[in-house]
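Revision sheet: structure tokens.
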Amino acid sequence: MTALTLSTAAAPGLRADAIVIGVAKGAGSRSGDLVVAPGAEAVDKAYDGRLAAVLETLGASGAEGELTKLPAPAGFKAPIVVAVGLGTEPDAKSEDDEAYDAEALRKAAGVAARALAGSKKAAFALPVDGPGAVGAIGEGILLGAYSFDVYKENGAQANGGKAKNGKAPLAEAALLGGKPRDAAHKGAVARAVAVCEELNRARDLINMPPNDLTPAAFAGIAQTAAKEHGIKVQVLDDKALVKGGYGGILGVGGGSAATPRLVKLSYKHPKADKHLAFVGKGITYDSGGISLKPAGHNETMKCDMSGAAAVFAAVVAAARLGLEVNVTGWLALAENMPSGSAVRPGDVLRMYSGKTVEVLNTDAEGRLVLADALWAASQENPDAIVDVATLTGAMMLALGSRTFGVMANDDAFRSAVHEAAEEVGEPAWPMPLPEHLRKGMESQVADIANMGERMGGGLVAGLFLREFVGEGITWAHLDIAGPAFNEGGPFGYTPKGGTGSAVRTLVRLAELTAAGDLG
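Predicted:
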């Protein structure tokens, strides 16, 4: 991953392949003008104060995500200047809005880092007004520079970080304006590295082909990471699942030669008095089972374990950060395949909780594995449970491809989760759990069916999951079906493919709980 350093060096004398600066659309009296953002004063001075005019001549407007390259001025040791748009500058008249938004900095740094693939070093002279900005820029760089090419013969990952052909990720980024001896600045970089390394690990897992990432392989990766970071791990294989009565996980995984697993990751802090449980859907490949998906809907179904990847990454990140909170992660891992042993529409499964579920559609499988894991998590009576899942296409229809839905059995907790997501730059939206939709899941032969009304399908799925949360336990459900896998082109710090959606939200929830700021 890209190495991050803090530097008080002046941009002109720094040896680098590029100097990255920010530009923005003017606000207030400068409305309509292109302005050079703070941090780039030395660069602007070298252009005799005409940098904005030069960039405007080249077509720059300061729009978010826009990138413009130009030759560096005489005397600079870096050959080029890279100007990246930050959107509209903050209104200087507002005392509460003098700094650039953290997400704007994150996106700008990500755009620049991706554009500088193949470079050995770049200096980022973006606006830094404190550790928050240092952390945001660092995150943007580390996430924007991500690439997944391990399966390509000439890829950098396949050749020890050096691409035979093509371009390796940016090797080093110096954050100008960052203070190397300032504890808060150093802490912001350390946090960015820990969170982003784990988020990028989640991206790797999501991007892995399903013939390599079976439930057993995923469990093995989790065991290795747990050992490295002092996390206790327990893996239930198919035999242990049968003995324990995990009918939901077994039912979904019964059609595949790759047998299911339930992985429990436990991070404990000796001073913690709060306990969070994270539960992740880990369908390593989803064919739909007997209710087979139609052509055109199978190609990206390796991403159906994105929830488990997010939970795994968040628990490891919490351990690396040493957060004063106990965090347990539950990875419900199975492969949903059609075969003679696969669960059929009309079958009834006895879940780990003892409830029975009539399976009306085998492609509504995520809620079945989550139900068992939610009940298992409930037995430890945590202060709160948050599950994460690429659960329903209905949520994508409702919120699009970049926003995840948040449902909960407690309005205040739902608001807290939503606010945490927005704070870290993960678009989310609170969704209801209408009681009248529960009636549609009534079954003549079982306690509940795994399908209900078609309209509001994402909410129906949330109501189903609520049935398997222990009484009196605060719970939230994140349906990340939209943002978990980016099928379009990269944007900001988001790559094509696996995104690692919800990792930062879960880590932030753990931080808030550790600080006593989450209920």
